[in-house]
Each structure stands twice: as C-alpha cells, then as structure tokens.
Amino acid sequence: MRFFCGKNRGAISVFLTLILVPVLIFSGIIVDISRLYAAKTVISGAGDLTMNAALARYDKQLKDSYGLITMADDPSSPSMKTYLEQSFLESCNASALKDTKSTDLHSMIQLELGTEGVEVQGVKNSSLADTQVLQQQILEYMKFRAPVYMVSDILEKFKKMPLKNMNEKKDYIEAKTDYAKKAKELGEPSENAKTAVDAHSAAIQGVQGMASEISEAMNILVQQSVFYLASESLQKYLDNEALAPVGSGQISSAVIRQNLAGAIVWDRSETVFDEIRYADLVAAVSLLQNSGIVEQAMNNDESFTQDEWNAYVNIDTVIQQSIANLKSIYEDAEKDYINKIENYKSELQTMINTGNEGITQLQKLEDVWVNKVQPAEKACQERKDALQSKGEDISELNELEEEENIKINTDDLEDMLNCLERNTEEAEGLLEEAEKMIQVTDHIKAAQINSTEACSIFERGVAAAVNTFWDDNANFGMPLQGNYYYTDPKECNFYKEYLSKVGTKSEDETEQNAKDQKKQDAEDAQGEYDQILEGLNALGKEKNLKDFSGLSYPDEFPSGQNKIGSDIQSAQTVKKLNLDSDDTTVNDGAGSLSAITELLKGLDNLSGELLERAYLMEYMSEMFNCMTTKENDVSLSNDKLNSHYIYNGEIEYLLYGNESTIVNKTEATAVLYSLRLAINSAYVFFDKTLNAEANSIASGISAATGQAWLYPIIKYSYLFCCAVVYSGQDLSSLMKGDEVAVWRANDKVKLNYKEYLKLFLLVSMISENNEKKLLVRTADCIQLNTGKSLSSKYTMLTLRADVKAETTFLPKVPALLGRSNSDEESQKTIKYQGILGY
Predict the structure, then answer these.
(1) Phi, psi of 502 (to 5 degrees)
(2) For bias kind Basic and acidic residues, which ranges apply (predicted)?
C-alpha cells in the first residue's frame, strides 16, 4: 500500500479533485433548478390563495338581496390592489421577513418581487353589467333557491286561459269588421244610383207626357200653315204673278160697293182661318187688278160716296197689312211649335243624361260590390266556416234579415244597366227626329208658291189646299212617328228589390230608442275612460332614473353602457276610441285585436326551452315592484319591495325602459288596456245576449233611415262600445290590484295586474334581443337599489406576479461552457398568471 501510494505521489488527490468539482457543480445546478421549481410552486400557491382571498370578499348586499355573488370591491382599485399584494406577500411565507419593507419573500429559496410586482384585475366581461353573467347568476339563484312551484303555477294559469281558437276568432272578427266597413261603402254609390235612376224615370215620364203635345203641335203647324199659304198667295196676286180668281168684264157698281164696304183687313186675333174672309181679300185684290173697270164704274155711277172712294184709294195698304197679319199668325204658330220641340229635345237630353248618369252610378255600385263588399263577405264566410270546423258554436253569429238587404243581385243589376242603355239609345233616336222636326219650318219658308198653289185656297178650299201644299213638298221632311220602346227602370227587379229601399223612411219608433241606447253606452264608456285617467293622474310625482344622485343615468348604468334605449318613442296614454263615430269605433276596435297576436304567440311557447326564460321572468317579477305592489310585499329574498328607489314601477321599467316612471306605468296601462279590449272584443262578438241587443239597435236605425248597409257597422260599433265599457271596468279593477276574469263568461281563470306584467315579460323574452334588454334593465334596477356600479362588480379576476428567485450555479454554466462574454444574472425571473371566478 505504501508502495502504491508512494508511487502515485498525489495523483489520487488530483483525480478525486477532478472528479469532485464537476460533481459539486452539477449538484449545485440541480439545487438551483429545485429551488426554481419550489419557487414556482410557492408562487402559484400564493397566487391561488390571494385570488381566493379576493373572491372571499363578496358583496353581501347583492348576495342577500338579489342572490348574486360578486366581489365587494373593484380589484383594480388602489386599496384593493394594496390588500391583494400584501396577501400575496404573506402567502409566500413572508413570516421570515426581517422587516415589513423587505422585498424578501422566502428566506429558504430566496424570492423577491420583480420590477412589475403584483397586478390584480377583474376579468373583462365578467362583471354583472354583462348580460350573460347576470343571466347565469339569476338562473343559478332561481334553480336552487326560488320556489319552482311559483313558476309552474303561473305557467299553468296562463295555459288554462279560456282563449280556445282565439286566432280563428280574431280572424273572424277582423273579417267581419272589414266587411262592415266595406258594406258601408255601398252607401254613397247606392244613394247616387237611386237618385240617378229616379231622375231617369222622371225624365221618361216627361218625354212620355210630351208625346201627345208634340203630335198636337205638328198638327197645329200643318193647320196653321194655311195662313202662310194665304199670305203668300195674296202677295202673288198683288205682285201680278197670279191673277185673282174672278171673272173678267164689267164689274157692277153693286159689287164694287160691296167689296169696298166689307171688312177686308185680317186682324191678328183671327187665328181661325175664315174662307169667306179670305175670299173678301181676294176680291179686294181683284179690284186692284181691274182698276180700270172699277174707276170707270165709279165715274159713271155718281152714287159712290167719298168714303167709298177713299177706301178704294187705300185698298193696297189695307191688303198689305192683312198679308203681314196672316204671316204673323203663322209665325206665332211656328214659334209655339219650335218651343215645344225644343222643350221636347230638352226632355230627351235629360233622359239621355240621366240614363248615362244612372249607368255610371250603377257601374260604380257594382264595382264596390264586386271588388270590395263581396270579397269581404266571402272572406267573412270562410272565417266563419273555419270556426265551425274547429267545433265552435256559430249559431249566435247568424245575422238578421236587415243584412240580407245589403246583398246585390248582379244579374238584376245587369238587367237594369241594359234597360238604361236601351232607353238612352231610344232617346238618342228621338232626339234626331226632333232635330228634323225643327228643320220643317225652314223647309216651309224655303218653299216657292206657284200660281196654281196661289189659287188653290180660293178654288179648292182650305183643307184641300193645305194637303196639296204639304203633299207637293213631301211633307217638308217631317219624320214619321215610329214605335219607340223605353222602359221605366222602376219596373226592374233591381229597383224593386234593392234601390227602392234606399233612403226610405220607416215609421218604426225603435229608431230613437236605439239611438238613445247607443248614446248611453258611449257615455258609459267615456265614464270608464275618465276613471282610468283619474287613476293615472293619482299616481302622483314619481322618482325617475335621471334624478338618481349616486350615478349618472344612463352613461353609468348597464343600459347606457350597452346602448339599450327606451322602447317608448314618446309618452303615451290609454288610447281613447272616438265613440261618436261608428267608423272610428269599428276601425280602432278591430285594430285592438292585434294585441292578441303576441299574447297567443307567448302562450304557444310556454314550454320546453322557454323554461329558463320563465325562471328569468319569475325573478324579475318577484324581485322588483310594480304599480299594485302593497306596502308589506317582499321579494324572494324577503326584502321589502317598497323600499326600492323606483316607487312601484320597476317591472314597468323593465318592460319599457323609459327614464320617466310615470311614462312606463302609462305605457303598461295602455298595453294592458289594449289587451283587455282585444279579449273583450272577441267576447262580445260571441255573446248571444249582446248580439241580440246589437241586432235590435242596428236594425232599428238602419231600417228607419233606409240605409241597410249601415246595419253591420252600427252593430259592430255597438259591440265594440260594449267592449270599451268592459275594458275600462277591467282596467280600473286591475289598477286597484284586484283579479279580473280573463274571459267574462268564465271566472275560473283570473289574473291580476302583476300577473299580466309577468305575461308581458315572458312574451317579451321570446326575442333574444328583448331578453337582453330586460336583463340590462334588471341590472339598472339592481344598481339603483344598491347604489353600486355593477360594471365594477366582477365575478372573475386575474392575478399577474413578477418574482425573482436567487440562483448560485446556473449563472456559471455559460462560463463553464466556454461562453466568457455571458452576462447571465444570478436571479431568475418567474412570471405567474392565474384566473379564478365564482
């Protein structure tokens, strides 16, 4: 052994040294690595403990009042940040710290905070202002704490509402009211058509009455044409174009004296032709034509007096005056004839005009019936059949006979149109004849009297002369009276069955009674309106969101941050029907039926996936107050509801979101009134007693006025008026907190004001967008009542820590590896990031 050791002379020591140094360095590196892993474990545990400490500080008010779990303070606030940093330090075994200012965290593994230190923040979108977070917390609260039977009970109550086949009933009522409005449109065209047809009938009577007058006028003209013939013949004699029909030769003194002494002047008053008088005129003319013989006789017979001589001297003037008077007598007859023909033409033109007007008005009436009323009636019948197919009893829907008077037989109407067209064509033919009749007088004046015709009166007599005069001139184009056929339209079936009843008065005394009853019902409805308005006005001064002093509305509220505005464009009140007008009553009443649509849609979805929404609805309706909340009513968490910031109007705010509490209440009242009006409108339409009353009133008024088309609109106006009265009574009771039967004939299912709001909430949640609105407004109310901004109420937080761990051997590794320029520090940085939530 000595030999061996002596031989090595320290080699073993060197060898051991060479072996031991790397082993020591390797062991040191392993120790450093172990310290780093231990440091990570310590830091991770400290971070978890720190976050748990933060989450343990939950908001007790939110938890106790609303079942919501969230941190009491904002993790990013200075005080909370200091607290959490200290918690992190203590969680890293800081009990060995030399003093409180030391940055040493752990004496054994030698930890200290880095430059970034500890950073704690709430996780974005994890605050209660986020709708998904709020919804999830509400659902968790409702699942484990809320009495589920409350949800089931209200759902079952809604499902039992007696609104069977309400969609079909609504469609029927809308079709029925549409038919009533369309039927009323028959009024004006019916009255116009009757006026035009009556005028046409009167014109026919006028034309028929003048037929004999025209025939007589034609005969008179023919007879009186003898005066024209006589005047022309005398003028021919005077002009020596024809010889007076007397014998030639000596005219005795006696004959001359007789002619001079005769009354040879034809007076205008002598309108009856006297042949002897005419013969005297011809004889007088003959004296002028035989002037030489007359003068000789007068010179030879000294017995002629001076008067007779003077008469002879002036005989030419006297004859001219007689000719003028004869012409005037004919012209008077001609004027009378022309006037009668003109009157006849006027009557014919009236007959044509009234016929055309009647055709126009009947076509308008037919257009309204075919394109408006008949389709509306058909649609009404289809809805009625649909109800019957659903098993509904429609016996009470049968209308009275008055409604049958509205029906128009288009075949009869077409017959009347054809009648008017034929009459108009006949009248046009007669008008053409009348034009020819007037032209006859021109033809007479244009006729030339020859010498033979000039002598015909004297030689052949008046009748023969006149007949020859007319025959020779082919009757001067006088049209022959043909057979014309026109029919009095009052004899048509359409007039007898329909138009005759338009505008006629009845002696039935029920008219005034019906009007009085209708007026009384309108006054009753107005009284119900007044009560509603008084109830709204009695709400007094309300607290509004904009008046809240703790936070600025809406910018600092979840609704403002989510840009969820009001669903109300402007302040509304309960919509008042204009009960003075049947038209507006029916229009507004039928329009209110649309309120049933959303109700039925909500009822149809009260199952399955909607259960979660039912939980939300129950939370919102039980955690917040409404207009009928009593003083001692409490929420699910046993808090008094009247202690909330918004006084008895929180659920209304959830629904409509207006910053004005009174506006939200008014809107809720208006919507509730519309729904009650819609349901009551359906009820009155299917109630036998009310239908009988409506039939009596409508038939009385429509029969008394002779306006059958008013029957349906008066009836439905009365029914809607009854619905208005019932709706006013219902709303007044609901606003007092009383329960009201959903269907008046069935009191098994009753709802109060709050339950209707629950229904509105549930129906609103059908749309995902509306669900978000309701959740955001729920957050608004919670924020109002707690006075704390929910945007800083986090349910999750994140912690970041920058920690340095001291090492001994790891920094030397680069040098051992030959990296002489390495600037590796002796501390290793450990970055920690953790997230934790409830």
Answers:
(1) -80, 125
(2) 505-522
